[in-house]
C-alpha cells in the first residue's frame, strides 16, 4: 500500500464534512453520525456526565470539551468546530450527517412506513418532503417539543432531537400546522367522576344549583385551564391544586362531564404532564376530598 493511499484513507469523509459546512452556512446546526446512524458517545471528559452537561441543553452547540459530545446538543454551525481536530477524527468514522431541526427553526414529521405516509397525505398540509430508508420526512417551518410514537409509525423531531440529513427534499416549506402540534397532546383517558347528590337549600322559583348553570361552570373550568397554562414552574403541584379546587367546588353535585375533565387534562398535558400524572393527580384530589 502506497503512502498516497494511506494519506487518502486518513482524510475525513469529504462529502460529509462539506455537507455539514454547507448546512452551517444556511444556519442549520449539524453533527456526525457513527455506525448505526447514532451520535458519537461523550468524550472521556464528559463520560457519565462528569462535566455536568452543558449549562443550557435546550439549545445546540458543543460543551467546553473538545469532543463531539452530548448527542443532538453537539450540533453546531461553527465552521471552526466542524473542522477542528476532534471533529475531523469523528468525520473519519462518520457514516452520515444529522442536524438539529429545532435549532434551525424546523420540525420534522418522521413517517416510518407506507401506512403512516398515507395517513399524512390525507391529514396534514403539504410541505417539503424527502424520502427516507423506510418512509418520508415531512418538514415544516416552526418548532415544538419532540415526541416519539405520536401515532403508529409517526415521530416528531424538533427541539432536543436530531434527524438524519438526506437532502433538500421537494416541495414548498410551509408553516407548522396545528394538526402536527395536536399530535403531541395525548388523548386523555375518559374519566367520569363519581356523582354524589348533596342536600342544598331550597331555592325560590325552583332554580338549579348554581354549579349546573352553564355560565358558572364554564367560568370555573376556564379559570382552571388558565391557572394551569400560566404556571411558570411547579406544574405538577399546580395541576394537583387546580384539580383539587375544581373537585371541591363541582365534584359533589355531578355537574362535571367527561368533556370538562378532558379540558383540564389537555391543559395539563400541554404543559408537559403525562396522562398518568394527570390521572394520579385527579385520583389523589378525589381521595383527599373523600369523593
Provide an overview of this structure.
By secondary structure, this protein is an alpha+beta fold. It has helices at residues 3-10, 14-25, 79-82, 85-93, 114-123, 178-181, 214-229, 235-250, 258-270, 275-289; strands at residues 30-34, 38-39, 96-99, 106-111, 128-131, 136-141, 147-151, 154-157, 163-164, 174-175. The protein is built from 10 helices and 10 strands. β5 and β6 (136-141) form a beta hairpin. The model is unreliable at 1-12 and 188-208 (pLDDT under 50).
Short description:
This protein is α+β, with helices and mostly antiparallel strands and 291 residues long.
Structural class assignment: alpha+beta
Query: In whole angstroms, how far apart are the ends?
Result: 81 Å
- What order do the helices and strands follow? HHEEHHEEHEEEEEEHHHHH
Report the principal-axis shape: elongated
Integer average pLDDT: 80
Uncertain regions: pLDDT < 50 for 5+ in a row?
1-12, 188-208
Largest sheet: 6 strands, mixed
Number of helices: 10
The number of distinct β-strands equals 10
Percentage of residues in strands: 5-15%
Radius of gyration: 26 Å
Q: Helix content range of the residues, please?
A: 25-40%
Amino acid at each position: 500500500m502506497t503512502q498516497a493511499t494511506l494519506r487518502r484513507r486518513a482524510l475525513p469523509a469529504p462529502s460529509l464534512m462539506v455537507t455539514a459546512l454547507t448546512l452551517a452556512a444556511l444556519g442549520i446546526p449539524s453533527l456526525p453520525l457513527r455506525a448505526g446512524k447514532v451520535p458519537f458517545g461523550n468524550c472521556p471528559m464528559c463520560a457519565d456526565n462528569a462535566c455536568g452537561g452543558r449549562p443550557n441543553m435546550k439549545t445546540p452547540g458543543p460543551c467546553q470539551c473538545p469532543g463531539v459530545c452530548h448527542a443532538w446538543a453537539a450540533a453546531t454551525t461553527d465552521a471552526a468546530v466542524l473542522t477542528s481536530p476532534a471533529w475531523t477524527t469523528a468525520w473519519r468514522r462518520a457514516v452520515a450527517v444529522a442536524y438539529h431541526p429545532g435549532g434551525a427553526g424546523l420540525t420534522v414529521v418522521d413517517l416510518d412506513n407506507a401506512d403512516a405516509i398515507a395517513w399524512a397525505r390525507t391529514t396534514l398540509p403539504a410541505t417539503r418532503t424527502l424520502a427516507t430508508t423506510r418512509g418520508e420526512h415531512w418538514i415544516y417551518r416552526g418548532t415544538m417539543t419532540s415526541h416519539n410514537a405520536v401515532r403508529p409509525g409517526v415521530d416528531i423531531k424538533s427541539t432536543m432531537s436530531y434527524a438524519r440529513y438526506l437532502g433538500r427534499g421537494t416541495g414548498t416549506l410551509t408553516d407548522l400546522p396545528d394538526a402536527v402540534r395536536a399530535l403531541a397532546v395525548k388523548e386523555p383517558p375518559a374519566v367520569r367522576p363519581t356523582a354524589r347528590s348533596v342536600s342544598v337549600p331550597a331555592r325560590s322559583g325552583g332554580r338549579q344549583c348554581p354549579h349546573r348553570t352553564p355560565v358558572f361552570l364554564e367560568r370555573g373550568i376556564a379559570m382552571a385551564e388558565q391557572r394551569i397554562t400560566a404556571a411558570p414552574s411547579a406544574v405538577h403541584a399546580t395541576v394537583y391544586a387546580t384539580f383539587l379546587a375544581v373537585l371541591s367546588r363541582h365534584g359533589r353535585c355531578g355537574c362535571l362531564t367527561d368533556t370538562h375533565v378532558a379540558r383540564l387534562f389537555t391543559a395539563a398535558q400541554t404543559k408537559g404532564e403525562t396522562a398518568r400524572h394527570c390521572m394520579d393527580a385527579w385520583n389523589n384530589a378525589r381521595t383527599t376530598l373523600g369523593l
